[in-house]
Design a protein that fits this description.
Helix content: over 70%
Number of strands: 0
Mean pLDDT: 83
Shape: globular
Distance between the termini: 27 Å
């Protein structure tokens, strides 16, 4: 049953992400600022919700409810929120070195993966390797 909750939450989170990004493009801010806003909102929300809904928190919720929101909605909205929560947990545990490695490795490896994926796709279809419209620019 938990897979169903995560699936439903992910669909809702993805829809929210798309709607906010489209709204930011409509306002002339471009998709990049929409993505920044999504990442910041998602990070704030997962930190807030995760703390308030612990079994020892102010508003304890079931595991399925927490999965629906934290893994589903926040995961569909932005995976950056999960990364940030995990890094924050490392910092809170006093594992600064592991937190620094997590941040550095995530940024470098993810940028490298985007570049590698782009390069691979570019060789297959070089004529469409550069976004020409705001709609094409937004991919997630």
């Amino acid at each position: 049953m938990s897979y169903l909750w995560v699936t439903l939450g992910s669909a809702f989170g993805g829809l929210l992400r798309y709607a906010i990004t489209r709204w930011s493009v409509t306002l002339g801010l471009g998709s990049t600022w929409g993505t920044v806003a999504i990442n910041v909102l998602g990070c704030f929300f997962i930190g807030w919700f995760g703390t308030f809904t612990l079994q020892t928190g102010r508003f304890p919720l079931s595991d399925n409810a927490r999965l629906f929101v934290m893994v589903g909605i926040c995961g569909g909205f932005t995976t950056f929120s999960s990364f940030s929560l995990q890094t924050f947990d490392l910092v809170r545990a006093g594992e600064w070195w592991r937190a620094a490695i997590n941040v550095t490795a995530s940024v470098i490896l993810c940028l490298a993966a985007v570049a590698a994926g782009h390069k691979l796709a570019y060789h297959a279809v070089p004529q469409v390797a550069v976004a020409e419209t705001a709609e094409e620019e937004y991919a997630g």
